[in-house]
Specification:
45% helix, Glutaredoxin, elongated, Arc Repressor Mutant, subunit A, alpha+beta, binds FE2/S2 (inorganic) cluster, five-stranded mixed sheet
Length: 159
């Protein structure tokens, strides 16, 4: 697998920090996902081999944690915070509006590969709930109207 040299370096430094190699599995998944964008079968096999485990051990972790992805993300990576303050502020309704307008189910990428919509946990800006990230840009107070505006800009490619 083609990992960036800096990722390999981080992995080499990370593994010896754990007395039991298996405990490095989750952070290793994050590092490989950061490098590759998602965790392919090849990535899962590579991580397993690196930790002297079976691929099924890594696949279990990847399917358990929603922030680990099995598919590449779309051109727009939309993440809706669903932790309590945002949930109380209407994050689920915001997410439903984004699902409808962007024609993609949460946890998936649209058929044209343009949008990936996901739930995530707290972005540490809870006073301005609901919070939505598009790529690395944060949008706050994203109620229904703001969600529609965001969706429109995404559809038009102007965001
Ligand atoms: S709960 Fe959503 S930003 Fe903290």
């Amino acid at each position: 697998m083609n990992l960036k040299p800096e990722t390999i370096e981080k992995i080499d430094r990370l593994i010896p920090r754990y007395p039991v190699m298996r405990s490095a599995a989750l952070p290793l998944c994050h590092l490989v996902q950061e490098d590759q964008g998602y965790l392919s079968d090849e990535a899962i096999e590579w991580i397993a081999e690196r930790l002297d485990l079976e691929p099924i051990n890594i696949a279990e972790i990847v399917t358990f944690y929603p922030m680990l992805r099995r598919e590449p993300t779309g051109q727009y990576h939309v993440r809706v915070c669903r932790t309590l303050p945002c949930a109380l502020g209407g994050a689920y309704q915001t997410c439903r509006r984004l699902e409808e307008e962007l024609n993609v189910k949460v946890g998936h990428t649209s058929e044209d590969g343009k949008v990936t919509l996901e739930f995530v946990e707290c972005h540490a800006d809870c006073g301005k709930a609901p919070v939505v990230m598009v790529g690395e840009t944060e949008y706050t107070d994203v109620g229904l109207e703001a969600a529609s505006e965001l969706a429109e800009k995404i559809k038009q490619g102007t965001l």
